[in-house]
Amino acid sequence: MTEFLLSRFVKGYPEVNDPQVRARCGNLAGLVGICCNLLLSAGKFLAGLLTGSVAISADAVNNLSDASSSIITLLGFRLAARPADDEHPYGHGRTEYLSGLAVSVMILLIGAELAKTSIQKILSPEPITTGMVSILILAASILVKFWMAAFNRHVGRLIRSATLEATAADSRNDVISTGAVLIATLLQMQFGWNLDGYMGLAVAAFILWSGWGLVKDSIAPLLGQTPDPELVRHIADVTLSYPGVLGIHDMIVHDYGPGRQFASLHAEMAAGADVLESHDTIDRIEKYFLEQEGLHVVIHYDPIVTDDSETGEAREFFAAEAKKLDPRLSIHDLRMVPGTTHTNVIFDLVLPRELDSRTSELKHALQEAAQRKNPLWLCVITAENSFTGTFASEKAKEAETSASEQ
């Protein structure tokens, strides 16, 4: 059914990397959500009126809020698809995150109101009537919501939309909450137990829990969360696959909305290689990412000495010593400046933020290791945090091994 809807109503599908096709997929998901949730809400309101059940009515309000959420999602996709302009040179993609935040806040408000109503129902219970009509409506709702969860999850992963994946999670939670209401209705029919208020409170709790999770998911990209490890690894793998690139570091990924990522990194290349050839390689990498993946990548050329055995030996030594101190440590940009009384060994030490308090200790430990290795080595270390990580290719090791053998 999902593939049928996408192929039938999304022009240009399956080219989801096209921003316009991606927006159409999001619009379709929003429209499907609006239609399904309005139908479910109307059916549950009817069942709630016939039975007097606050739990069913609460579930109906939940579906109505979901319909409103789908409207905001639809609006968010439309606004996010607007092209860049002079005031917003990076586009309007973050509007999608803002729409997700608005939906999350709405869910929290509705959940709080339903919790209040359910508590009143627990303190002052009222008799309710049950029947097959309400049971059939609830059972149908569970089936529809189960399909909607699968639909939104599929489309969300297809177009890499955190908003739709959050909507899928919300639909999954609705399956659980509606199932709880159905159980309460069946218990009422079978044993006469009036658990209406308690189940209504349980539904409200699920709504609040889901809303809070969505708030966190919506705020994270707006604040600047850690980039997707798969994207980081992919950028590294592609860059390192080009001849002449020996390693990369200082990668930063900026997120201006789904499908609107910008990245910068330093590419290590042999200092002895032809500069124009190295520059051409960097240009080809940047061009590939932009044309094939729509990713803006800016690469800084970082020359490293590969034909000096002492420098290669020092690089391997300090990299190994750093790993001994903590497996998360790495080094880059090592160079050696010989003098009359000592040799400055200059490099950057990359460490996670949780080790910032140990910076002086780690520098001292590396200096002591240097003195044991060579009393003339004096370390000049710059400590820095990594946004992603440092990646080295086998080509760098091969180049240094070749220099050591000469």
TrEMBL record:
<feature type="transmembrane region" description="Helical">
    <location>
        <begin position="197"/>
        <end position="215"/>
    </location>
</feature>
<feature type="transmembrane region" description="Helical">
    <location>
        <begin position="97"/>
        <end position="115"/>
    </location>
</feature>
<feature type="domain" description="Cation efflux protein transmembrane">
    <location>
        <begin position="31"/>
        <end position="223"/>
    </location>
</feature>
<dbReference type="InterPro" id="IPR027469">
    <property type="entry name" value="Cation_efflux_TMD_sf"/>
</dbReference>
<dbReference type="InterPro" id="IPR050291">
    <property type="entry name" value="CDF_Transporter"/>
</dbReference>
<keyword id="KW-0812">Transmembrane</keyword>
<dbReference type="InterPro" id="IPR058533">
    <property type="entry name" value="Cation_efflux_TM"/>
</dbReference>
<dbReference type="InterPro" id="IPR027470">
    <property type="entry name" value="Cation_efflux_CTD"/>
</dbReference>
<dbReference type="Pfam" id="PF16916">
    <property type="entry name" value="ZT_dimer"/>
</dbReference>
<dbReference type="InterPro" id="IPR036837">
    <property type="entry name" value="Cation_efflux_CTD_sf"/>
</dbReference>
<protein>
    <submittedName>
        <fullName>Cation transporter</fullName>
    </submittedName>
</protein>
<keyword id="KW-0472">Membrane</keyword>
<keyword id="KW-1133">Transmembrane helix</keyword>
<dbReference type="InterPro" id="IPR002524">
    <property type="entry name" value="Cation_efflux"/>
</dbReference>
<dbReference type="Pfam" id="PF01545">
    <property type="entry name" value="Cation_efflux"/>
</dbReference>
<keyword id="KW-0813">Transport</keyword>
<feature type="domain" description="Cation efflux protein cytoplasmic">
    <location>
        <begin position="227"/>
        <end position="303"/>
    </location>
</feature>
<feature type="transmembrane region" description="Helical">
    <location>
        <begin position="127"/>
        <end position="148"/>
    </location>
</feature>
<comment type="similarity">
    <text>Belongs to the cation diffusion facilitator (CDF) transporter (TC 2.A.4) family.</text>
</comment>
